[in-house]
Design brief:
homotetramer; alpha/beta; 7-stranded mixed β-sheet; 6-stranded parallel β-sheet; globular
């Protein structure tokens, strides 16, 4: 499309949970954007979403989206193992690309997809939505503005309310690729630099079946940043009080903390104590604002012909970090990221 | 319309700030509802909103909305002094009615509008949106569920970030009608009963021009409830830290408090102290969820042929309370609400 | 005593709960002070405290304290109905006086005691200890430093964890004299000016026996201050979550709030919510720091021959306010404080 | 002394900062205890404290304390390099021993001191006071009571307000021995088990002079516990907002967090945000309650002939951990604690 045109016309590839979210967001909330086509191998899923949001073209074949000359951009929401292939095909079709994370688990696969994008000269944005969360974004703004001086310590707490089913665990690529990858991205985003070394500790404390599936459910990852700061990420697959998404960055000039969002701001004072609300339970509630904001940013980047805020390289580096963390856990030693990168 | 039909088709009367909000809410978010007509004496305002949200019929005359046989319900968003007239005309046209608060400043005017609604047998809901705020609604749910036992004390703090322009103050009906009226409604809503006696204290401390316009800008109102509890409302036209909307209800079994909503949950710890975010600054941000929820509730009540959650009588009583408070302030004595009711 | 002497030697009159606190505070914590005599009609009580803290002189007769030439100052901790008599006798004996609040319930009795103090030229400090609470003191400092600009609104919440026994209620002088009197004092202290008009609302909601004893157990008092600000005090005899001692002062430049103190700063996040500690349960824990600080201030005032921070007039005015509130409640009207003062 | 005797008579060895605190605490607050002797090579320091608290015996030689037959117990508050020698001498003199932490930096030195204690059959308590902090103690109680189920993750944040002078850094034994040692102890205390493996990350980010002195000023230590849980400690020598002492323990049944203590509970809401108090600035204020409670516990243990709550073995293990952390930092690898223990 040419910059500054009225409306960015999307085709959505994949009508699962995240595909539906992007369809709704683009159709209802995002300005200067519309969805004109949707495809899913399960055609009924595509049809349901198409009918709900008035999307005119619907298909079981993603090629129909790519071949539609009116489609300016695609949102790739298919399963992770197809992301790289879809990126390459969409780039070759000349479509701008918004792709869910991660691009792939294999760096050479990622690299050839990114090369296709580069060659086609289309825009690519990876769906690391948490960068667009109002809390985390404001922390980043504060750090970039020098509010805490030089960063010294970073702490990210990221705990799920419930573990995924063991069947999912087996195909998830492991906790570092499935869950911690968001935290790896946020760590880079907040600190504004890369990590040089990673030490990962992990345990199976939540559910033995997860261990039997070859994964861990509890982890602490130590990050050594290029700027000299040291960070930790702690993850659990199950926090009984809900979805725990906090972080803090400490520096020479102070500390910025981001606390949990809650469904309301009420407090009950009773014989049993002073009780306030648990965190928002599910990632869809917790991060809905960020799904809107990331798409707004993508639309704006395409329309104004500017770089997207989460580039292909930004999509690759957290995969590098997940590979390093996995190796560290296995070999019980700190791993230099340069071994992998 | 007949209950359970697919979609409730709205006509909106008035395309000012609140009319635009309801248009957007109904078009973009509320389920089973659409806007098919909009009217405003300033036709360009109606046209702008019509074009933005794809509303097919647009007019300078509210009669065009009422005469449109496809319109099932109207949202009356015109200036307060026209509310009663519009309610009567809409009722006579057989339209269900959502009307912004207050109905009128004069009880006899209110009563004849409510009589027209009664006679026509249409639904009426008054726009006391704060009942639908997630914080306040959860407090009400807690009280109704017996969480705090018998209520003894109620405290409402309601302070604006900026005073309105003096020109507005002159036509606003006074602070009790313009600002406290929301708190009067919430007080009844939370306690589940009426007030029997009111004592109002007021002062001009924010802006002398408000006093010259015959109004006050600071107030404390004491409420004696039918259930024996005692309440206070405190209001200010200007809180330098933003829109302060807190309340607490204390009873034999504990206390429920509702704190301010903030744009993010970040905290900065620096040499100057531990600093967290100010309240959301403007009523549109603070209460946006409630604008959606009140309209969802209206649509549901009409479609299922159930009573609306904020009846005409619920719209009348806060006006009674505002009249009582005004008299109390003038005569420097507690006023029995039965004097007015 | 002569200013700047090494040590202020106290005699304590009354060895009940508050007498023991002052004995302990002076013996163990307060600098430049000692207790050399103690008297109580129940001699065993005096003996117990004397032995615990190594107080050399012990008696059943307060005259023995006053006649002891080594006693520089007395702490009057006897029952309220004897305070005025003790003040007069101590003044005539040339002793500096620290006296528990209130001086008396009757203004003419107060006035003759204050006249005796004036005539004798001794120091007098009344035991309104809450002025010395670190929280409230810091609020006062902030207001005095202009942190909130001109004060507009004051809210004091003061709720006890348990009602007193009905037998005590009958001799307590009523809730306004027994409980609210502290809040009347803090209101004056914070605002730095007097109250001109009072409107009191009261109810019996906690315990019918309190009503049968002629008192109330729940109250909301509206205060009109000389500086134009409006305040409210709310009281309850029973807060199930403990001793609730909060206040806020709102002004043109912001708001200062004082929250409850708690036994620890731990938070539990569980399936039932996020639970933090209840307020410190009992006034002795909550206000222990203030008992030390008020005595430090008294000792310093005597040693340096400076005015005490809570004068006889400061002891009289809250009684005036309690009389006004009692009349307001009875006559269901706002009462001008000048009617009483 | 024989158990249950009236009063435990202390001799204090060392009249520096911590010696003065213990003198004051025992003389003024702790029940059933007194100080009858004090010694310091700087005799004037001993004399000053003796005179302030009325301690009858004062000397430049610690032997005078040990040779005093009326001394039941000693509090060893001399410099760290003398602790082991003093413990041995005191044990041989048959005195019960309260000794400041750490016992020594060298395990063989510690072991011979502990052997002397064992042989003499006297009580020994090490001054890991933070176990007695009301916040941390309540967290431990909660964990022990099963409030959070099985512990999975521990996070300790421990940051000083100001770095020590470089001269001190050189003789401090390094950050892990001087600062983190408290956190090592609290980690064991909270989890109720030992650590099996340690990985330490460190940096010089606060002050280059600290690096030049061979030490670090910023650290993150990962702990692997015997119970399978994983913990982290983060330390900084300089937090601009004050003394940051927080921790959290997360388990299958929930999370317990301990937040910072503050000098007051006031909040200011102004144009610049909502500002609350910084943490208590200095360890003496922050941990004063714990200095009292640890001494109360020691006195009780001796009088009732019970085990002390912080044994010699509890004093040794944090030194083991500090050695392991130091080795891990130097060798850039996780270190098995069994290598050292």
């Amino acid at each position: 499309m040419s910059p500054n045109s009225e409306n960015l016309r999307f085709g959505i590839i994949g009508a699962g949970r995240i595909g539906k979210i992007h369809a709704q967001t683009i159709c209802k909330v995002v300005s200067n954007a519309s969805v004109i086509a949707i495809a899913d191998p399960v055609e009924s899923a595509a049809q349901e979403t198409a009918s709900k949001f008035g999307i005119p073209h619907c298909s079981a074949h993603f090629e129909d989206v790519l071949n539609n000359p009116d489609v300016d951009a695609v949102a790739i929401c298919s399963s992770t193992n197809t992301h790289a292939e879809m990126i390459t095909a969409a780039a070759e079709a000349g479509k701008h690309i918004f792709c869910e994370k991660p691009i792939a688990y294999d760096l050479s696969v990622i690299d050839s997809a990114l090369a296709a994008v580069e060659k086609a000269g289309v825009k690519l944005q990876i769906g690391f939505n948490r960068r667009f969360d109002p809390n985390f974004h404001a922390v980043r703004e504060g750090i970039a503005a020098g509010q805490i001086g030089a960063p010294h310590l970073l702490r990210i707490t990221s705990r799920d309310p419930e573990p995924p089913p063991p069947a999912y665990v087996k195909v998830s690529g492991g906790m570092f690729f499935d869950m911690t990858i968001h935290d790896f991205d946020i760590a880079r985003y907040l600190m504004g630099c890369n990590v040089t070394r990673i030490f990962a500790a992990g345990a199976v404390l939540v559910d033995e079946e997860i261990g039997q599936a070859g994964d861990i459910d509890t982890a602490v990852v130590t990050l050594f940043f290029e700027n000299g700061a040291i960070g930790t990420i702690d993850n659990s697959r199950k926090a009984i009080y809900g979805y725990d998404q906090r972080l803090e960055v400490f520096g020479s000039g102070g500390m910025l903390q981001s606390l949990n969002n809650t469904p309301h701001r009420n407090v009950f004072s009773g014989a049993g104590g002073i009780i306030s609300a648990k965190p928002l339970y599910f990632f869809l509630e917790r991060y809905m604002d960020s799904f809107i904001a990331e798409m707004d940013a993508f639309v704006k980047a395409v329309r104004l012909d500017q770089p997207t805020p989460v580039s292909g390289a930004d999509g690759r580096e957290p995969v590098v970090m997940a590979i390093a963390a996995t190796r560290s856990l296995k070999e019980k030693r700190p791993v230099e990221v340069s071994e992998i990168r």
